[in-house]
Amino acid sequence: MFNLSTMFEVEGPDVVYTWTIPVFAAIIFMEMAYSHFNKEKIYETKDVATNVLFALLNYGLDIIMKGFSLFVMMFFYHHRIFDWQEGIWYWIAVFLAQDFAYYVHHYVDHHSRVFWAVHITHHNSDYFNISTGFRSPVFQPLYRYLFFSPLAFIGFHPWHILVAYSAIQIYGTFVHTQSIKSMGFLEYILVTPSHHRVHHACNIKYLDRNMGMGLIIWDKIFGTFEKEDPEVPVKYGVYPKIKSKAPATMLFYEWRRIGKDIRQPGISFITRIKYLFFSPRWRHDGTGKTVKQYQKEYREKMISKKDGGQPQQPEVPEPEYT
Questions:
Q1: Which CA distances in Å does 71 have to 160, 233, 252, 270?
Q2: b/e per residue, 24-35, with b = 16+ CB within 10 A?
Q3: Which of 9, 109, 184, 229 has the most CB atoms within 10 Å of its CB?
């Protein structure tokens, strides 16, 4: 039987996943049936298989890294600067802190290329459904704990941090759907399917928006919020499009592009490092356009259009190089 109290003990994260995976399997089949009978074509067999494969690879690496991750987090907890008394306010603080830590983590994933090379696997599907929520960034367990360790340093127990992370991730999986159009007043508080559809879009207007997983307030505070616009239909996936849908290609696609860039002749060591950590579309010769540059041009063209002009506005970034 499910015992709620076990969620807050050492085995908490495993309890959360064990009891929710069957629920999500049922929901996915229901959404597949809904998609089939309404002829919406939001599922594709090979894509779902890739989602499951990446989830299993991520989970396997997570098990391998679990001991080391906890060792690092426990080190920070041992040197913590605050002691908290457990109770309702403690748990509220844990969940708020974890949700913010994930926002920071997610923001870095989108703005630093080496992290984007890991995270891109979650975005490189042309489909968007609840199974997409299981399309995990496979190599993320190698470094994820580094973003959570500061929470241990300020006094939150590592196991409690991981319980909060697991619970928020479960909710985050749920918002990967096109079947729910709006959640009413919750649109102002939580990350909703509408908000997350924007996040998975490759339209210029929507790029690098809505980074939150539980609460949408972080995006509103830090200026990364974008509302779904009925006049700008969401296009899913990444640009440039990946020609092969083979799992290995999808998994190592951006790493190969990074390798090609850092092996360029005649560039300095510092420039090679910049190709690892600068914006994913940064180019040392100025030929690349970052998301910020694309969105600046987008805003300027929209202003020009409102003033009476009729500029041609691309819906997605052009692939400068492949």
A1: 15, 45, 29, 32
A2: beebbeebbebb
A3: 109
